[in-house]
Each structure stands twice: as structure tokens, then as C-alpha cells.
Amino acid sequence: MTDPWVALEPGTDPAERVRALRRAHETFTRAGTVPRPVRSVVAESWRRSARAGVGPDGTASVELTDGDLGAYRAEHPLARVMPLFRELMGTFAADGEHLLAVCDAHGRLLWVEGHPATRRLADRMNFVPGARWSETAVGTNAPGTAVALGRPVQVFAAEHFIRRVQPWTCAAAPVHDPHTGRVLGAVDITGGDGLAHPHSLGFVRAVARAAESQLALLAPPRRTEDTAVLSALGRDEAELRLEGHRIRLSRRHSEILVLLARHPEGLTGDELLCALYEDESVTPVTLRAELARLRRLVGPGLLASRPYRLTVAVESDATVVERRLRAGALTSALAAYTGPLLPGSQAPAVVRLRTRLTDGLRTGLIAHRDPDLLADWAHAPWGEDDVEVWRALAAVRPSAPVRARLAALEAELSLPAGPALPPVRARRPSIPPTRRTTQVPRP
């Protein structure tokens, strides 16, 4: 094969190749070996599919429907280039009785459009919006394999891992964020054997490049001097990007800015005092001194008083994660989550916010049962001891390393406890009169 990414060489008999591929597929599912004429890219994908526990008689599962699907699509970056996809591929799909499909970076289909009769046939195998078509879910297929490899790929007939998909042929190309290079998803054309041609692979590749160019025009890199950005996830000392400058903040100043960014209406001195300090004997003088130091650091124009508030909009990375989580965009929320919020902070309001954010993500992960997302969390520093996530991962991807790690964690949990220590009763400090009725602001 001159080009290993193209399914059929010119002059190849498609019917004969289908028969040969079916024999090869049966050999692989029975004996685990991949005979000729299977392309290397397909053979490697079959092996990945088998390692992920995909069965040849499986089917795709629909994970998002109705409002959840709509919210997720609205938040996804590829929504901005759907008009371009329709303009470049819509007529081709309709006239050729094909389908235009777009998936996210984890192989979840976001849009499936095209010829009505072809759509009805595709519905029978759950090739529908909201369904998971990653390699780890349904094995070898063009959109799932394209995002797994990060490059355009064509999958012909019985090259598909799942038998019920083998009557179809598809070609897909990943779409990258033009500024970061991160894979956002893939654009796919799906139909009959006629798509097993070098032109279809070149076509989706060109459409994906056009989408990346369009995204670069629609969302140019943000100028830091035009906005204030607060990075506080996964770090004890936040960083503020303001007017083209990067300002490293102390832990206390980090806590103050996180809370003020979350409360644009402002907080009174008593509210801020309760939010920041566990020790109720800390006086307002201490807080005013911290705020004065912060004002000198960031400039007098950013921080106002009575109530304490920020005079410009500050976009916090924690707020981005929360917003995406509320919209049901779990994958997008996890992509923006770089670790717990100010992990060393003991400020009461920050602790609540950190716990709520982490618990929201964990709950979504465990409920969605996505092996890729669960694995990302479990292997991150903040998830390596998270036994509930490891249990969820073992349920959907019961590989030997996963089972071994889960067994080790559960063994640690079952260790006998050490000798009990007598309870320590701390004397509660007196509460200044101005703070007895103050409510701690909710994060």
C-alpha cells in the first residue's frame, strides 16, 4: 500500500477486499493475530480496541440527550465552525447519501447530519448525536480513531471492529485548537464503499484545516492587557495576569482575589474576615493590612472598598470549570481543571469552594462512566488515591494495572487503625461583637 492511511489502492476490487477483511477480523477475534491484508494502522487499532475490552458484537451507548446534549454542544468550540462544515460538506453528504458527523475530543458525537434515509440506517447502530464513538467504546472507527491518533484516517467496511458497523465506510480528520494545538474533536464523512477513495480522506483533511483557520479568526489569542485572568487551580499561590503583566500572589492574597472574583458585587470587611480566617480572634486591622498590601501589589485601580470589590472583571479558572460543569459540559470542564483550588488554603470559604468543585467533577465522572476521563482523573496527582474513582474505572476498564492499583488502595483502607487518641477539646475563642451575627459568604 503506497499510502497506509488510504483504505484501498487504485484498482483494488472492493468486494474481494471486504471478504478478505472479514476473514482477517474473524481470525483476530478468535486467535488474537492479525493476518494480511489488514493495514498496520487498523491492526494497531484492533489491538487497542481489544485491550480496552470492546467486543465485536457491541454497540455505541448514548450518553447525552435533549437538554444535556444541547448545553454541551453550545459550550463546545466546534459549534462556532458548524456553519462552515455544513457549507463545505452538507451538499456532498446529501447528494451522495452520506452523513456529516462531528465529534468531540473523546469521540462523543455532537452533530450527525445528511441524507435522511442514511440517517435512519445509522440510527440503528446508535450513530447519533450524544453517542460515544471513541475507540475505547466501540473500537476502530474513523472519528474515534482520528481523535485517538490525532491525524486523518479512513476506515473501510470490515476494518471496523464492531460487526454491525462493517457495512459502512468513513473518513475523519481531527480539528485542533489553532492556538494550543489541542485536539478539539474530529469531522467525519460516513457512507458506503464509494468513500474508500483517497479523495474522501483529502476532503475531510482540507475541511478540518479550514475549520482551524476559521477558529483562529473567530477567537484570536486573548490580549492579556484587555482582561484580568486569575489562575488558582492546582497551585498554592495564584497568578494574576493584568495589563500584560504576570503577578505572583501570596497565599492570602490569592484567597482574597479568588473570593472577590467570585463576588463581583463585593464583600464587607466582616464577610471577608469570616470567609478568610478560621480563627475568630483575628481582628479587622489584620485584614485591612493585607488588603493594603494587595492594593500596592496590583495597583490602586483594581481594588475598591466599601464594600471590598474588584473594579474590573476577573476571569478565574475555577469559575470557568464551574460554568462548564453547570452546563453539563463535563469533558470541557475537566479539560480546564488543572488541580484543586488553592490546595494548601484553609480559608473556610475557599475550602468549601474547593470541595464543591472537586465533588462536582468526581460525581460527574463516576456517573458518566467514561473510561478515558476516569483514567485521566485517577492518574492525576489529585486522583491517584481516590478509591471511588478507581472503583468506577475498574468497572469500565478492568485491566490488570487498574485492578492492581484498586486492590492496593482497598488494602490500605482495610488496615487496622492505630491506638485511639483522646479527643482534644479546643477552647473556642471569644467572638468580637461585630462578628457574632455576620454570615460567612457562600462561595
Describe the model.
There is one protein chain. With 443 residues, this protein is of the alpha+beta class. It folds into three domains: 14-218, Beta-Lactamase (2-Layer Sandwich), CATH 3.30.450; 224-316, Arc Repressor Mutant, subunit A (Orthogonal Bundle); 320-412, no CATH class. Helices cover 45% and strands 12% of the residues. It contains 17 helices and eleven strands. The protein has helices at 14-31, 40-51, 66-75, 82-95, 116-123, 135-138, 142-149, 198-218, 251-262, 269-276, 284-298, 317-326, 330-336, 348-368, 371-378, 387-396, 400-413, and strands at residues 99-104, 109-114, 153-156, 169-176, 183-191, 228-231, 239-242, 245-248, 303-304, 309-310, 314-316. It has a five-stranded antiparallel β-sheet, with helices on both faces. The protein has a four-stranded mixed β-sheet with strand order 8-7-6-11. A two-stranded antiparallel ribbon has the order 9-10. Strand 7 and strand 8 (245-248) form a beta hairpin. The longest helix is centred in the middle third of the chain and has 21 residues, at 198-218. It is elongated, with a radius of gyration of 27 Å. The model is unreliable at 417-440 (pLDDT under 50).
Instruction: Figure out the total of helices.
Output: 17
CATH topology description of the largest domain: Beta-Lactamase
Q: Report the CATH C-level class of the largest domain.
A: Alpha Beta
Largest sheet: 5 strands, antiparallel
Radius of gyration, whole Å:
27 Å
InterPro entries: GAF, GAF-like_dom_sf, OmpR/PhoB-type_DNA-bd, WH-like_DNA-bd_sf
Domain OmpR/PhoB-type: 244-310
Keywords: DNA-binding, Transcription, Transcription regulation
Region (Disordered): 418-443
